[in-house]
Model the fold of this input.
Amino acid sequence: MLVLGIESSCDETAAAIVDDTGWVHADVVHSQIGLHAPYGGVVPELASRDHLRNVGPVVRSALDGAGVRLADVHGIAVTNRPGLVGALLVGVQAAKGLAWAAGKPLVGVDHLMGHLLAVFLRRATGDADVPGFPFVCLLASGGHTAIYRVDAPDAAAITELGATRDDAAGEAFDKVAKLLGLGYPGGPVVERLARGGDAARVKLPAPMAGSDSLEMSFSGIKTKVAQLVASGGVPATSAGVADVCAAFQAAVTGVLAAKLIEGAAREGVSEVVIGGGVAANLELRRRASELGARRGVRVFVPPLASCTDNAAMIAYAGSVRLSRGERDGWELLATSETSLERKTRKGRGRR
Ligand code: KG4
Ligand code: ZN
Done:
C-alpha cells in the first residue's frame, strides 16, 4: 500500500511517498527556517503563506521522486493536528482537494503520532531493526515533551507517563539560543557549540531531576540562563558561550535520558524510542544509550531525517490507519490540540 503524506503543521512544507512496510520511496522537505530566522521564531502568518506557495511543488516532487502518479497511491494522509491552525489548513485543504480529484481515501494524522512511529521508517536496506510493542517513547520537539507507553500504534493504546509542566525541551533550546544571540532554531547550534564547552564551569539547575515522578520542567533552567545574561551579559568569549551551551545541554539531556530510562524500568519494558526534533541531539542519544545499557534497556533512535519534521512519518502513521480501514471525510478539521493529550488527561485522573 503506497501512501502520499503531507505535513504543514509548523515551518516545514513536506510531502512523502511511503508504503505500509515503512519503506520511504520519496521524502521532500521544504524548510522555512531562512524565512523565520530574522524574527527568532516562527511567524504564523508568514508560515501559512509559504506553505501555500510550496505545497503544490513539494507534492509534485515527492510523486516524481518516487516515480509514481497520484493515481498509483492508495490513500492520502495529512497532518491535521496539533500545530499552527493557519499552517495546518494549507496541508489539509491540499490533501482534501487531491483526495477528491483522484478519488482516494483521506486520513488525518496527529503529528505526535507521526513522531512516535517515525522509528518504523526504513530509508536504507539495513534499517530493519525496529522495536516491538510495548515500548516507552520520549517525544521531545519544539512544541511537546512527554514520555509515553506505546502498546500499539493507535491513540487509544498510548498512555502518557509524564510530560513537561511548562516549556518543551526544544523550545528551551530555542529560547537559550535566542538569549545568547545564536539565532533560530537553537537546538543544532547549541549542540555544535556545546562540543567545545565545559559544562562544569556554569552552574545550572536541573529542575525535577531528582523528583520521583516522570514530570519534567524546563522553564527554570531557561530563566537561569536569562538571569546570567541579564546580570553579566552574553559571555564575551566564544569559550564562555560554549560553556553555557554545554551546561544547558548537559542539564536538559540528563533529565530527559534519566526520565526515559526510569519510565521503561517502571513499566517493565525493555525497549525505548526517542522521537521529535530534539532526538537529533547526539548528547541525548549518548546519555540514553549509556543509562539504558546499565539497566538492560535498548534505545532506538530514528536517523536524523526521521527525527525532525517530515511527511514520511505522517504517511506511515496514515498507512497504519488506512490498513485498519479508517477514513476521514470532508469534515476533517485542523486543530491545535493533540489527540494524545486529551486522552491522557482523563487517564491521569484514573491512575
Ligand atoms: O519535531 P520538530 O522538527 O518540530 C516540532 O514538531 O516542534 O522539532 C523542532 C525542535 C526545535 O525546537 C529545535 O531547536 C529542536 O527540535 N532541535 C534540537 C536539535 N535539532 C532540532 N534540539 C537539540 N539538539 C538538536 N540537535
Ligand atoms: Zn514535530
About this structure: The chain has twelve helices and ten strands.
